[in-house]
């Protein structure tokens, strides 16, 4: 249901913006102004904020919200080092859409490793991991602008999708300096 509302909203906004008055040059396509982009993005943020609030209304998570819009809830506290930029983080994760649709996960005994702030991992995960310590398990709620944005991942994550990521920080490795 959320997906249908989201798709209808995007289509409706696209039609509204495409039908705006003004001189169009057919050879250059529809002109899209910075103001239109800003308004479009504001509407997406408002819609996703409502979806996230509805999602959290039924849960007893003690979430914290960052300035970027990321929400995180550390439900199991570890006692290891804190994650910082330039470290390699070894993690386990499960990614779902806000409506519960499964996207990806690591195998139960396997991990994935990425360099904090220097990889193609979503900026919401990058921000969230820096709130964690080794041994922590957290739920991250990542708005689309901190995840895969307007394009999705061209596989299992559709465009404009809020993600819920269950993330475990297994270990950290400092980078050797040369």
Task: Describe it.
The protein has 178 residues and is an alpha+beta fold. The chain has a single domain, classed as Chitinase A, domain 3, CATH 3.10.50.40. Helix content is 27%, strand content 24%. The chain is built from three helices and seven strands, in the order H-H-E-E-E-E-E-H-E-E. Strands 1, 2, 3, 4, 5, 6 and 7 form a seven-stranded antiparallel beta sheet that branches. Strand 3 and strand 4 form a beta hairpin. Helix 1 packs antiparallel against helix 2. The termini are far apart. The mean pLDDT is 87.
Question: Which properties best describe this structure?
Answer:
178 residues, alpha+beta, Chitinase A, domain 3, seven-stranded antiparallel sheet, 3 helices, 27% helix, globular
């Amino acid at each position: 249901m959320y997906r249908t509302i989201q798709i209808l909203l995007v289509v409706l906004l696209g039609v509204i913006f495409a039908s705006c008055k003004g001189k169009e040059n057919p050879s250059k396509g529809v002109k899209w102004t910075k103001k239109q982009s800003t308004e479009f993005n504001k509407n997406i943020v408002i819609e996703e904020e409502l979806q996230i609030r509805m999602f959290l209304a039924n849960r007893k998570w003690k979430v914290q919200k960052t300035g970027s819009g990321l929400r995180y809830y550390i439900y199991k506290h570890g006692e290891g080092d804190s994650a910082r930029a330039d470290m390699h983080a070894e993690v386990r994760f499960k990614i779902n859409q806000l409506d519960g649709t499964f996207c990806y996960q690591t195998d139960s005994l396997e991990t994935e490793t990425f360099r904090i702030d220097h990889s193609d991992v979503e900026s919401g995960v990058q921000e969230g991991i820096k709130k964690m310590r080794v041994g922590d398990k957290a739920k991250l709620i990542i708005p689309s602008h901190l995840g895969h944005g307007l394009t999705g991942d061209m596989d299992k994550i559709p465009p404009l999708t809020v993600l819920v990521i269950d993330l475990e920080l297994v270990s950290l490795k400092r980078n050797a300096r040369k």
